[in-house]
Amino acid sequence: MSSALFALAPVFGMIVIGYGLKRRGFVTDAFWEPAEKLTFYILFPSLLVTKIGGAQTAGADLLPMAAALITATLIISGLVVMGRPGLHKAGLSGPGFTSVFQGAIRPTTFVGIPTAYALFGDTGLALFAAALLAVIPIANFFSLAVLIRWAKVHENGAQPGWGGVVGLALKNPIILACLAGGGLNLTGTGLPPVIGPILENLGAASLPLGLMAAGSGLDFNNVMKSKAFVFGTSFVKLLITPAVTYAACVTFGVDGTALSVAVLFMALPVAGASYVMARQLGGDGPLMAGIITASTIAAAVTLPVVIMLTVR
To answer: For residue 155, is pLDDT > 50?
Structure first.
């Protein structure tokens, strides 16, 4: 299971580098805001278009596994939203809740890609791409909807109602990228020449820049003040979410490598891009960065265990 550890090490390393650059003043504060904006509006959408648009399907295993993954995402999302009143009573703000929500459902897929390939070869990579197609659009949409509902406010200070959530979310570059990538994939068009490689290069830049931005936003004083929410969210993401996914896979008759890849996908630590989204849309950036870091550290232990329990 060392492949999971090796995949996680550079991810956390990039967060540490971002924190070190900010702490040492090597890069000025004026750099990070435009870097986050560039990642959110250009680099990360490019990554989604290329990953979804160029993904290869995985045959008969695709639909049952996709159904299990979507079901698990719906269940966890519903449970977190149902728990919001209790979290609010415990002192969690609206923006803080959006970070907890993202932390519960958004996996860092670029950690999973090398892990799936190392463990299961081409079959694992194809199944992982199918998981990405099933989960990424819905997880991004739900995260944006929650951010718009509980973090983003109008100029008059009022929160938008649910009626305005869909329209606002569909204007978001992340959702548009998911729709564009899905259209390319479903039509069999694939990535166009010239434009495809350009998008791939832009998407590749989103990973280090997004993670370093997360590191730059770390505030350990705020993280420790919110440690119950940080550790609680990490527990849900790394243990409860994969457990629910396993149950959903059993329900839908998913087994073998497809089951292992599905559970692996949902057991991944929280996506670094969640921090950028939180910062851009009024979420709790420091809490989000804390959740990302804590889940990444803890995943070094939980991910190999989850893999060991599901690989047959």
So the answer is: no
